[in-house]
Design brief:
6% strand; 98 residues; two-stranded antiparallel ribbon; mainly alpha
Length: 98
């Protein structure tokens, strides 16, 4: 499988996780946190902001896109769109303010 098809497959999977405006996954992709035994919200030490990485990837892609990679860019926009749909203001702010 060539690189662009693999990227599209991975992006489709990640997009599918949040289909139907699944708020928990949408937020989890931005901030991996949990409630401890006392009910306090704590962020995982190795938390990773996927949403920011997708935004950075799109910014990089925008500079080098071509007719051969257009499908990858469209799928990346689909993923970003899925993670800001619904009641997820933190994700919207994250995407627009950085």
């Amino acid at each position: 499988m060539d690189g662009s098809k693999m990227l599209i497959l991975i992006f489709s999977f990640i997009q599918g996780l949040a289909e139907g405006q699944y708020k928990n996954i949408q937020n989890f992709m931005r901030d991996q946190s949990y409630a401890d035994e006392n009910g306090e919200i704590k962020r995982l030490a190795a938390s990773f902001d996927f949403l920011s990485e997708f935004r950075s990837l799109f910014n990089s892609f925008f500079k080098i896109h071509s007719q051969y990679s257009l499908t990858v860019g469209i799928k990346l926009i689909d993923v970003l769109t899925e993670y800001i749909q619904g009641d997820v203001p933190e994700n919207i702010n994250n995407l627009l303010n950085k």
